[in-house]
Amino acid sequence: MELYGHSAETARMTNSDRSPAPFGRALCAMITPFTEAGELDLDGARRLAGRLVREGCDGLVLNGTTGESPTTSDAEKSALVRAVREAVGDRVHLVTGVGSSDTRHTVDLALAAGESGADGVLVVTPYYSKPPQDALGAHFTEVADASGLPVMLYDIPGRTGTRIEPETMIRLSAHPRIVAVKDCSYDFLGAQKVMARTDLAYYAGCDEHALALYAVGAAGYVSTVANVVPGPMRAVLDAFDAGDTAGAARLMRRAVPLIEAMMAAGLPGTVTAKALLAALGLPSGPVRAPLRPAGREVADGLRTALAHATDEFAVA
User: Fold this and answer.
1) Where is the catalytic site (predicted)?
2) Distance CA 169, CA 147 (A)
3) Domains identified in the chain and CATH numbers
4) What is the pLDDT of residues 86-132, one digit of tens each?
5) Residues 111, 116, 121, 124: what is their CA dihedral angle, to the nearest 10 degrees?
6) CA 237 – CA 213 distance, rounded (Å)
């Protein structure tokens, strides 16, 4: 079959068509395990990170939204990065969240991230103060100037109240250390516009967009659902890269009910991921207030969704 003068074989997306993947393709936004007393569980973090890597993750994002960064101290953030680095060595990329509402604090966290062994930093839009676009650009630039690590911008206006507009992304892409975007904008057109005009590596930050964004040239995903099913999420990308686009779509559809149960049921992904990890006997622990654990009815529904998804993946 010919497509615009090319065979179907040569029409497949090549590595040169795709944005670079500075932090890997299949990244998990890892939860932060706590003990039953609510303290940082570093041994649990090592075990969970090892399991995620063994089952397909080639990058881990620590201290992000799913990692409960608003409720962990600076010292805990650094300790988590060091512990996970000890567990996984140099096998995978480690990105750590350093974002805050305070530029000076964000710079300090970025500097500490390098000392702790991170490969990159995730910098979320300052929240609550709703800075205008020129102030956003100055914030991200100051962090990138101060840190020796590559920067992944985190665009999640539903939580921060402020969008990183496409034109701002395009301007920031000129900075040599601003290399990637975790996209939770729900603006598919805007994401494609930035990818077309820059070399920024786009990562789907919303699990339901993992295949859609990858299909138009994104670098991969940063997935909360991968805490629970890292292998099946990775399999979507692997199928697409192998040229099996129908198979990739089929695998993505099989993941959708679990994604919906975990990410669109009115609870933060941190809460649902920890509920399922606990059910699987994997490190998790409680969430920190003001978050609260999933109630029994919700937890039962999550386990049912996981069991159904597991059956579906088994026949893939």
Assistant:
1) 154, 182
2) 19
3) 26-244 (3.20.20.70)
4) 999 999 999 999 999 999 999 999 999 999 999 999 999 999 999 99
5) -80
6) 11
